[in-house]
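Reading a protein record of the kind used here takes only a little practice. To see the layout at work, look at the sequence and tokens printed below.
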Amino acid sequence: MATLYAEGDAARPQSNSVTDPAKGPQLRVLITWALLSVTMIVINLNLITMMRFGDPDDALRLLQVRDLLAGQSWFDVHQYRIAAPEGVAMHWSRLVDVPIAGMILLLRPLLGTAMAETATVIIVPLLTLLCAMTLLGRLAARWFNDEVVALSGLMIGLSPAVLCQFTPMRIDHHGWQIVLALTALSGLHARNARQGGIVIGLSLAALLAISIEGLPLTALFLGICALRGLRAPQSRFDWFAASAGTLALGSAAIFLGTRGTYDLVTHCDAISPVHLALLGWVATGAAVLHFAAPRTLVGQLGALGVMGLGAAAIMFGVAPECRGGAFVMLDPLVKRYWYDSVAEGMPFWHTAAPMAAAIAAGPLVGLYGVYRLWREAGDARTRLLWLDHMLLLAGAWLIGLAVARASATALVFAAVPAAALIMRGVYHLRSVPILPRLGGYAIVISLLAPGLPVVVAMSAAAPLMAKASSGHLEKSVGGVTLGSLGISKCRYDVAGRALNQLPAVDIFAPLDIGPDLIVKSHDRVIATGHHRGAAGMHDVIAAFMASPDEAHALIRKRHASLVAVCPDIYEPSVYAARAPQGLMADLLRDRPPVWLQPVDIAPGSHIKFWRVVN
């Protein structure tokens, strides 16, 4: 058994039998999950009752599922209520739609459509959370006692960057990405190379189908599997062959099962035929290494090098446009005012200070923990296993530093070794005097929640910051008050009910509120924050920052009948601040141009509407 504990230490955690229903890890995991779930439901109850999504992607995901259940083709992922009539081809996978659609179909006969949808957007994220906690619990139970098992699951609840992906109404794909990454980690800990490789390959195939952002993590897993072959030539690269082969076959099967032959164009933002060719090349090379592995280390490294060069040639020779990533071809205006403003897609220092601290420091606790496990392992096989875990965690941490939303993977990879390290400290503190014990517990809390000290420091500095700003907590540019990052007063449910009493029209609205408007009403919008609809995104941003006359031409070009703005969110204030004489600034000052007529369509919604008149 791997241990962080000295031989003979009475506090050393021993793994309990998972078959013991009273003390087994499953019960600990279930209790922790239930407490977290109830807490999140209570905290989000107001948003749940209003069916108000915390992220526009979640609203649009529900709309995609509705369209699927209403008869839209399984292979057609266009959203036809954006930039109608052509619509926008979404880069999302139907895999994520399956549990949402299945739950709605299961509950609809019992609750009706509306209540079935509400129950589904609560249940699905929480079941996803249970999957993640179960995977962590099973991994922890293999090495440690029930206290470490429980703390490993609780680490999710103490990490906002992870927990936010499992909150009620968070039905988009990010939670499933975490679950699939943990499933692949479980495969890496398997005792059997063939079984472990198959688990890794299938998990990564589903992960890539859901989001191409999993490609660096996929390369990391395959690299570690190849390293196992280099360390043990007698294994004939069995880990690498099993994982790469299953990944290639699984990706092809998922592609055909979810995309068919409907869309064979090369995309940089989703698995495409060029990616399947790349994975097939790697799988072929891995099979050659398995059946005819060079006997020397130089030969093995040469073979792996040829494999890597060939993969790069396939990717960038066939799809050179993908060299800079999925967003390199974005319109400059869209990139500046949309993509560069999405903090979760930027390096960690673009996020709020507490979140940045958690992203940067959180995995380091696990890294030190897994380092101790590696150093103190009792046998060579276990030592190498923890070394692989350490390399995987270090790589995932670097990926998370570069792309903030990917940091959740590193944090869950760190959970088990971090929990073991922290419990070691707790066991030690039980035997020390009270004052040092209190100081020790403060350190433990800081390790559990690295962002907490930053929150405390910012709270302490808040009075000084307020004084420095002369008490003005709101900024104003050109007479326009900048939007808040707090909870908006806009009620899309109220607006939707009112809009549904009128004929369906095209609404010209800021990007962030588009999904909420169309999921609550039968209307259409020009664009949302989804890069495949970049032409509509450009027109929306340009119009709101343009002079009234220029904006009128863009709005008429898009055949919009209404303009809608939620005045207390951040996006409108950005346009107004950057273009104080533009259309948005005039609308926020209640000085619309003559071709916009204010209409009180939805009293009580806090959303402003104007009708376009000629």
Summary: The chain is about 60% helix and 5% strand. The longest helix spans residues 113-143. The radius of gyration is 26 Å.
